[in-house]
Amino acid sequence: MRAATLLFCTPRGANPGATAPRGQDGTRGEERPEQTPPRDQRSRASATMVLCNSLLLFLLLLPFLGTAAAAATPGFKIRMTAKGLDLVKQEGLRFVEQELENITIADFHGKEGQFHYNISKVRVTHLHLSASDLRFEPKQHLAFNINNGSISLRFRRQLLYWFFYDIGSINTSAEGVHIHTQLELSKDNSGRLKISNFSCNASIGRMHAGFSGTLRKVYEFLGTFLTTGMRYLLNQQICPVLNHAGLVLINSLLDTVPVRNPVDDHIGIDYSLLKNPVVTSDTMDLDFEGKFFYLGDENKTLPNLAVEPVVLETERMVYLAVSEYFFDSALFSYFQAGVLSMEIADEKVPKDLEVLLRATFFGSIVMMNPSVVDAPLMLRLRVSLPPSCAIKASGMSISVTATLNIFLAPVDQPLVQLSSMTMEARLSAKVILRKKALQVLMDLRRFRIYSNQSALESLALIPLQGPLKTLLQLTIMPIINERTKKGVQIPLPEGMDFMKEVVTYHKGYLTIGADLHFSKGLREVVEKYRTPQGPPPTSVAA
């Protein structure tokens, strides 16, 4: 395309590499005087050169534009390791056994010489599939294999040979059952993880039936014929059953993973995948948007300028990596929602603090109307800038800047402002993972106030810093922690929870190593959503 552009941009008849002809002595020949083209031709040539320059600039920047467009930084990551896959294999094997137990083979009948037969009520009585393996395969695949398994069947027989008629049941066994499946995982249009492709190959090594009674020899003669047909029919049923289990039933389980749902009445969270899973022989990594948004304006979100979280460990079943952006976008969204404010009035204002405030602003109070002098105090606290989060190896902190206004609140009269001050606070934050809920518990560490009106008043406010800090610790922080205690659900399917969590802090992000356990079986969750009774859970709060 660049060559075509260069050709297009070269004036007709011009050769950029050509020089003037030379004479026999090596000097240049005489050059003809240039002829000035008409004005309209000069205008067209000028416009053409502008277009060419724009095209060349675009072509030069195209690789960088493509890289920038593809470089979406995740705010949240999940890594599943081979140890976690072993746990999934155990639960998945039980699910596969339950599905294969539901294999149905239609009744069939026919004749072989003088023998007439009718086979009905075929059902699976026992499965032995313990020699199984579930492993990662690069290029977005999971491989699930069952080797040397066995399936026991029981069916009803009706046989007619000349004048002999027999009816009863026969037990058969399929030995050397081998099932090889591959599941391709990918991101669907909604950003949810899905099984997008399922391949299956099943084979049965041998099948035999046990006969007894007076017609045993006759049955043995027919045994090969019957078991061969039964083997073919059974083999034809295995892969369709597993295909339905993967593409329909397991995908219904993945539908329970939150993608873009509300957290509460004010904000929501976006857990959509940014790309297809990255699978190695030992791990599977999932990159999520990890972004909160204000429900009133979902397009007004904080840009992600934080460092990308990194997971290097493989010792635990699963690892979570959470960026500073994850928390910053939550704080920004709550700020956009206008809910980071609080009023403290009447009996909620500690008496000691009320006395100290009245003494501090005594000069202003005595100059007021006597009808409002004895009015109760009211404190109005409002965050004035979006709070920010900082994660370091030593821990996590949140910086908050707020405005604290102090009023007299006379009954049935307008508020009377005594002071307006700026409060700067730093909160230490402890991240806790319980089941599927990511919780944050905060504690006030640093606190400073200064007046918005004068430096002299800032000096007068110094005695208030200790009591106001105590007020925040005893009154406001418990309210905040009660709200954050509910937590935010991690994008994990229903029925799976975390346990034995360990949080490690890094520069710009934190990681959580944990083990998994099934609080509900796959069968229980799948049965819950097999027949739709309403939409899947919409709230991501645990």
UniProtKB/TrEMBL annotation:
Keyword Disulfide bond: yes
Main location: secreted
Transmembrane segments: 47-73
Gene3D superfamilies referenced in this protein's UniProt entry, alphabetically: Bactericidal permeability-increasing protein, domain 1, Bactericidal permeability-increasing protein, domain 2
Basic and acidic residues bias (residue ranges): 25-43
Pfam families attached to this UniProt entry: LBP_BPI_CETP, LBP_BPI_CETP_C
Protein's name according to its UniProt entry: Phospholipid transfer protein
Domain named Lipid-binding serum glycoprotein N-terminal: residues: 79-297
Species whose genome carries this gene: Podarcis lilfordi
Location of the Lipid-binding serum glycoprotein C-terminal domain: 312-514
Stretch list, region Disordered: 10-45
GO cellular component: extracellular space
Cell compartment(s), UniProt: Secreted
GO molecular function per UniProt: ceramide transfer activity; lipid binding; phosphatidic acid transfer activity; phosphatidylethanolamine transfer activity
Keywords for this protein: Disulfide bond, Glycoprotein, Membrane, Secreted, Transmembrane, Transmembrane helix
GO terms, biological process: ceramide transport; high-density lipoprotein particle remodeling
Protein family: Belongs to the BPI/LBP/Plunc superfamily. BPI/LBP family.
